[in-house]
Design goal:
There is one protein chain. The chain has helices at 20-28, 47-52, 61-67, 101-110, 131-148, 178-189, 201-210, 222-231, 252-256, 306-327, 329-335, 337-340, 353-359, 366-378; strands at 2-5, 32-36, 56-58, 70-72, 90-93, 113-116, 170-174, 193-198, 215-219, 234-237, 263-266, 287-290, 293-296, 343-346, 349-350. It is α/β, with parallel strands linked by helices. It has 2 domains: 2-111 and 306-378, NAD(P)-binding Rossmann-like Domain (Rossmann fold, 3-Layer(aba) Sandwich), CATH 3.40.50; 133-304, Rossmann fold. The chain is globular.
Amino acid sequence: MIIGIPKEIKDQEYRVSMPPGAVRALVEAGHHVIVERQAGAGSGFSDAEYEQVGAEVVDTAEEVWRRAQLVVKVKEPLPPEFPYLREDLILFTYLHLAAAEEVTRALLDSGTTAIAYETVEDSAGRLPLLIPMSEVAGRMAVQIAAHYLQRTQGGRGKLFAGVPGVRPADVVIIGGGTVGTNAAQIALGMGAHVTIIEKRLERLRYLDHILHGSLTTLASHVHNIAETVRYADVVIGAVLVKGARAPKLVTREMIAAMKEGSVIVDVDVDQGGCVETIRPTTHSEPVYYVDGVLHYGVPNMPGAVPRTSTFALSNATLPYVLLLANKGFVEAVRSDPGFAKGVNTYRGHVTYPAVADTFNLPYTPLNALLSRTSLSQSA
């Protein structure tokens, strides 16, 4: 199979979908890999390193997209890339379509087969391709919050850890999954007082068992969220609904009651965000204020630490890329039902229920479409 790796064009997105080591594995499996020139530069990989492992380095994104049967990216295609989409192309990347109607329409109009990292499941129902970036984003969220909490950066001027005789920062984390757990680990390690709000009581018991420090766990409901957010120095949004928009758990009214100079980092912003006042920002212009509260809404946070993120992402995605390349699309999704759940669009159809529901589009199960294809070919 011909596999294409274009350079990411999202604002200050320095990750690349495959480092040279992963490309070597693909080449040794008998596949041809085309890499856009300078695609890996932001992560510290030279064109020569890709050529040394057998990749073909080309000058333009257009050539990568045109020649590739499978394009492996990090982030969703942006409007300049829409003309490259086509019916006989497989696109494998983070998509977050429930918060991206324009991208959804472009994929449907082109007929592209689009597989989203964030909806691929393993046999236990976990999200193996989302977990690595959730780990990075959860840890980064605390670094970012601590930075913006400084008065020189527009925050309240509080030190996360406090000092003897002075109260530490109060950090509220909405959601106790991978992002929330990693954020809590770092915030507790920095000496903050951390409150985790989570709807699953068994998860709260688990977190109470594994996390150590100044930790409070609370069941998720409107009263607990409103009361904790009101007194927070930092709120970190860490809510996930598989493939769907995040629920708005922190309302505008709650934001208005927060202390001036407090900080919100909503990691869920790529799925719409769990804070009513959040909107996507960029690494170039990452923050804005609502009611005196600083909001950080960069959807590609891990792009700021691309060396770490690229290796972490590729460790998880490479087995699936090899599965696709070795078996082809149909056999790959038939052999792994969890991988099939990653398919969000196929030949002009929405094949993921949450995306169809979000935009009031028809939903067609992937198996039904594959059966039709098999019947038409046999006829």
